[in-house]
């Protein structure tokens, strides 16, 4: 991406969105326009447009004359987003599995392979970039439903997944063997075209993640809606730690 493209309206929107979803911008963090202008190298007007788009997606909170903040997190909101993700993806799995062909199988297997390799490294105690882990996770779950036949459903699933993903990135915690085994089970269900079993696995997968994040207290530092003060700048990639 060139500097010109990166400072365009669409480019700034994508960069801001990625920084919010990947928790580089912390929940509750104040987004001053002057500071953002320096970081993203664009105009105040372009920033306002991008922030308003993100506010419509529930990722940014617009506070009238007080400006913008990154949307806060809470246990209640996480559970609601998780329920929405399950509702949408389970609905998409049925037509996707029915329509999936050999080419689709290849994409699902390939997406799972990349995710499984990274999971094996994590289980061996090797460090990993959290953003790369979640990129592979996102690609695998998307591959499972990409043949559902509805562009609108896929778009809505993606939006719900990204809001769910933000909570995972705040926690930055890999659940270990159980998560890897559930991904393998989802692959097996896809190859057998067993959407009903896939939905049950997905329900356990998502519920386990939500319960683990809540139990470990990863959201507590943001419970008041404001993170500890820190400068607005590009953050280093989060590093994953495997569950003990």
UniProtKB/TrEMBL annotation:
It comes from the Bacteria. It holds the Pfam family FCD. Transmembrane segments: none annotated. Residues 6-73 form the HTH gntR-type domain. SMART domains: FCD, HTH_GNTR. The keyword Transcription regulation applies. Keywords: DNA-binding, Transcription, Transcription regulation. One of its GO terms (molecular function) is DNA-binding transcription factor activity. PANTHER family: HTH-TYPE TRANSCRIPTIONAL REPRESSOR GLAR, TRANSCRIPTIONAL REGULATOR, GNTR FAMILY. This is GntR family transcriptional regulator.
């Amino acid at each position: 991406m060139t500097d010109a493209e990166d400072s365009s309206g669409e480019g700034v929107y994508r960069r801001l969105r990625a920084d919010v979803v990947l928790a580089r911008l912390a929940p509750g963090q104040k987004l001053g326009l002057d500071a953002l202008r320096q970081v993203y190298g664009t105009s105040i007007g372009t920033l306002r447009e991008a922030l308003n788009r993100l506010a419509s997606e529930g990722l940014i909170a617009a506070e009238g004359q007080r400006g913008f903040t990154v949307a806060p997190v809470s246990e209640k909101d996480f559970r609601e987003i998780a329920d929405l993700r399950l509702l949408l993806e389970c609905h998409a799995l049925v037509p996707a599995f029915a329509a999936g062909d050999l080419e689709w199988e290849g994409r699902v297997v390939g997406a799972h392979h990349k995710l499984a390799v990274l999971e094996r490294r994590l289980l061996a105690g090797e460090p990993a970039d959290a953003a790369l882990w979640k990129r592979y996770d996102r690609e695998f779950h998307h591959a499972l439903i990409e043949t559902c036949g509805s562009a609108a459903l896929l778009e809505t699933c993606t939006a719900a997944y990204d809001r769910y993903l933000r909570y995972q990135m705040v926690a930055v915690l890999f659940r270990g063997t159980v998560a890897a085994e559930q991904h393998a089970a989802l692959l097996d269900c896809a190859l057998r075209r067993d959407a009903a079993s896939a939905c049950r696995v997905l329900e356990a997968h998502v519920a386990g993640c939500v319960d683990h994040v809540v139990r470990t207290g990863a959201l507590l530092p943001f419970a008041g809606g404001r993170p500890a003060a820190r400068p607005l700048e590009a953050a280093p990639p989060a590093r994953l730690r495997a569950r003990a």
